[in-house]
């Protein structure tokens, strides 16, 4: 029986795939039990505020639905038959299946598959140690950041930007393509402070009236995939009206003369026809930025999840360069600080053992890989064994039918290490129960802010649950690579060595005392006032789309991706998106729900009850034309498949645009298939990625 303890406060970091990586204060009720979770008030980015779903984290840790014992499949895949198996037997089985796969098809037939279900560097990235030590197939991580990071990097040459805390010093804050209320609540904390203390205006640009749009002084609801047209019109007005900062342009940018000539025809009227905004809205926005030097552009991921997403990001970040907002505190732009942290993960990842000749498989194209597409397999052997950690591909990946078809193969052995019985776990041969972030040691860095934050173990896990680190170490021992670099070390040792190598903190213990490290560069560096990160120090209006380095550039074996010939010379709107047509008259976006984070929290009862059920937002004009009412079932589809779900008639969306907020579990849909049945996995130019919000669909009403 647990000995009751006085309530204490432990300190950690939110582990989830959200740029904020909030610093947390956690109530510890006893050695296995937590209470309320709060944002750390002492952290000047988190500022005491976290999202409601993480505040309720006790509901996840202590959920009656949590996986607690290793389970082996009995009967057919997906039929739901399981038997308990001991940990040693389970890990022996995984090792046996991996050895069998390697003996039949070579080491590349094993694919360790992972992503960002935890952002902890040890528990997330340690699987690569096993990958490299055994020469298993590599993974090209394409599913989340590629378009956004590529678009930013081709302009700035580095993944950093203005201090995100400067949002509170802004006179105009532009929140572009991110529903921050749902996914980055701290953005709204600093925005609200700017509004209260400085009278700042908040501009929100998105495709529907989500919770963030409702906070805006100026809300711009445009057609999906048309953000670059808006950006071009803003810059056109700046040159036309004399609000472009020509001194800044001459000093800090590559070809302002060429850009101005290019934008001569990109008028507000031109952009209005493309975006669906009015000319008056575009002019008002341009005038606001033109008279407000301290305009801060907070650029999100959502608007880049289109087939022209990299182009859209580059165009949007070109706007503050034209207006010269970078000169000013509270001005400029920010997307991600992923370059600033200076932590060397090579020991955690075992990169000393990486063989450059081993093939890479595209994470987003898992459906094509597992169903034997030769190109997706790089003309190599089939994948016949997998270890899946920190992700739920049967739910979150595009081309869901192919993913599930591949995972259901009888000749594929799949081990899923998870916290709940996800859609992916249901298709596995073996399911292993995983710890949660308060039950192990780890370290975090938040791309959307500026801190390295420690997440030490605060409570003991259930006795039958194991860490990702444990599974990787035990498999390495069974597979004969436990003597390779990085193995045989505890989480604390790996963190301690990495921190000491960084040079400015006394290892694990020092960070535990300090709680976080502020890595924000000085103002001149963050605002690129000492030059952008290219040899000539100039911001690139003329990007080298395929010749430039990039933060997540595909390996040479994969090369450039998508229709690169369609990429523009200067910022521009390009019709690379899935435009509606006669057979598919609607555009569908799969936007995030407030109570979920990707598929995480879709299993907790509080989040589910607050979200209600999977629904499709339909504009009243479309509902009238289709004779639809609230709650009526419809089927939407395209060449990838179809999904049934009830309608919610709402003027929050534009006519011709459908929005589904998720991600709900596949089993929450009427036919057991989720919304990603409809999303495509074709790579986005130039360096790949999945265009989740870029789908054309038809709609068919169901009989009442």
From TrEMBL:
It comes from the Bacteria. The lineage of its organism: Bacteria, Pseudomonadati, Pseudomonadota, Alphaproteobacteria, Hyphomicrobiales. Belongs to the prokaryotic molybdopterin-containing oxidoreductase family. GO terms for molecular function: iron-sulfur cluster binding; metal ion binding; molybdopterin cofactor binding; oxidoreductase activity. Residues 7-65 form the 4Fe-4S Mo/W bis-MGD-type domain. Keywords: Iron, Iron-sulfur, Metal-binding. InterPro entries: Asp_de-COase-like_dom_sf (IPR009010), MoPterin_dinucl-bd_dom (IPR006657), Mopterin_OxRdtase (IPR006656), Mopterin_OxRdtase_4Fe-4S_dom (IPR006963), Prok_Mopterin_Oxidored (IPR050612), YoaE_C (IPR037920). SUPFAM superfamilies: ADC-like (SSF50692), Formate dehydrogenase/DMSO reductase, domains 1-3 (SSF53706). It comes from Aurantimonas aggregata. This is Molybdopterin-dependent oxidoreductase.
